[in-house]
Amino acid sequence: MNRFFNLLPKPAPLRPESRVYDLKERLDWGEPALTIIDVRDRTDFNESHITGAISMPTDTLMATAAKCFEVTRDLYVYSNTDEESAAIAEQLRGAGFLQVAIVRGGVAAWKAAGFPVEIVTATVA
After folding, report:
1. Pick from 16, 10, 33, 12: which is nearest to 103 by CA?
2. Tally of structural domains, the chain
């Protein structure tokens, strides 16, 4: 199966600012080797988030990221605004992460493009 992916054109490399279409192309390619981080609060995350995203609210992001990710991992970050996302991406770069992109427009742009979202309906006690 890996041979099949080698025949397909590779998606564009990570850019500091990515459109939702760029991220979706990477996901559809099949071997994304990336992590999507939603830094909004847990309530917003539970209401709707990009399919496959993980919740790492801003207040715990830096400590958690240092424990969870290699500095060479491709990280796609989004928040409520692109300005917030850009500030958080800069913090991650400052902490040594080499491949960080913001997802312009966040979950709203993802939904507007008609891409799938996830909703958390059950709470864990």
Report:
1. 16
2. 1
